[in-house]
Design brief:
transmembrane, 219 residues, transmembrane helix, membrane, DUF2953 domain-containing protein
């Protein structure tokens, strides 16, 4: 009798794990920016859990969908700099803006250096993701014409690979000035198991790991 109960318990655990790893995550990304001024909302829905991250407020909210109600169970503020720090900062707004623009330019140089790894990961995405009427509009100018051309070429390559999967990228190169203006509306579903495989592939790419660390520190 004990053996049968243990087997039933084991089967329940296995089935539960399979349901979890083969369930879909729905991800919705809304994003707008003009150079380093940005606004956006990332929403992740998984079973009864909903995670929202407000890019402008730098606020993470975790909700639970219970029947016809949504209950907030946790709010996390991720802003690294409080109002006191801001008031004590002696730099002018213009200087701060210039510094942010330089950081963005350096990030895009790192993107250019990681081109091979990025395109390899992008080539794998259509196998595991189908986008739902996803669109990116982008005006890109990096003052440096050579860097603008390199990054533009990478984005065109990414767009060509992802277009059959349902992601449309409209890119306008801008030469002779620094301008990064975008408008994104991206929706897609991905199975947890495939998501884990994608993460493993990214971890195995040293240049991508370095780039992601910089993006996280910049945010």
């Amino acid at each position: 009798m004990l053996f049968e109960l243990l087997m039933v318990f084991l089967i329940i655990i296995i089935v539960s794990v399979l349901i979890l790893i083969f369930s879909k995550i729905h991800i919705d990304i809304l994003f707008k920016n003009s150079n380093s001024n940005f606004n956006g909302l990332i929403t992740i829905n998984y079973l009864i859990v909903q995670i929202k991250y407000d890019l402008k407020k730098q606020q993470l909210k975790i909700n639970l969908h219970l029947k016809n109600k949504t209950k907030t169970i946790k709010i996390i503020n991720t802003n690294k700099q409080d109002e006191t720090d801001k008031s004590e900062n002696s730099n002018t707004d213009e200087t701060q803006q210039d510094d942010k623009d330089k950081e963005i330019k350096q990030l895009l140089k790192d993107v250019s250096n990681a081109k091979v790894d990025i395109l390899e990961i992008v080539a794998y995405i259509p196998k595991i993701i189908k986008f739902n009427n996803a669109k990116i509009q982008l005006n890109l100018g990096l003052a440096d014409s050579e860097l603008t051309t390199k990054v533009t070429a990478i984005i065109y390559s990414i767009g060509a690979v992802l277009y059959p999967a349902g992601l449309y990228i409209e890119l306008i190169p801008v030469y002779g000035e620094f301008r990064i203006k975008s408008n994104m509306d991206i929706k897609f579903d991905i199975v947890i198991f495939n998501c884990l495989k994608l993460i493993v592939k990214i971890i195995r790419k040293p240049k991508l790991r370095k780039l992601i660390k910089k993006l996280i520190s910049y945010a």
